[in-house]
């Protein structure tokens, strides 16, 4: 296999970048999420959710969506409007 020639930092970074995009898409298309404005950023192995949402329940749902995709490494900084 060629994976032994790939630096682990690059592989992990690419995986997390893909996970950030997956989280962003899942939030954007989630039921009840249409009024939320959430940006998803990966930094140092953690997925950060930033932006605004109309209620705390939407903020909590965004966090649940993110954790269902990437696990516990989610920092939810979304605030209500």
Topology:
Elements: H1 8-28, E1 37-43, E2 46-53, H2 56-70, E3 74-76, E4 79-80
Description of the molecule:
The protein has two helices and four strands. The chain has helices at residues 8-28, 56-70, and strands at residues 37-43, 46-53, 74-76, 79-80. Strands 1, 2, 3 and 4 form a four-stranded mixed β-sheet that branches. A hairpin with a 2-residue loop joins strand 1 (37-43) and strand 2. Helix 1 packs antiparallel against helix 2. It is globular, with a radius of gyration of 14 Å. Mean pLDDT is 84; it is low at 1-12.
Q: Give Rg in angstroms.
A: 14 Å
**Ends: how far apart?**
50 Å
Helix content: 40-55%
- Which spans have pLDDT < 50 for at least 5 consecutive residues? 1-12
- What is the overall shape? globular
The overall strand count is 4
Which sheet architecture does the biggest sheet show?
4 strands, mixed
What's the short story on this structure?
This protein has helices at 8-28, 56-70, and strands spanning 37-43, 46-53, 74-76, 79-80. The protein has 81 residues and is an alpha/beta fold.
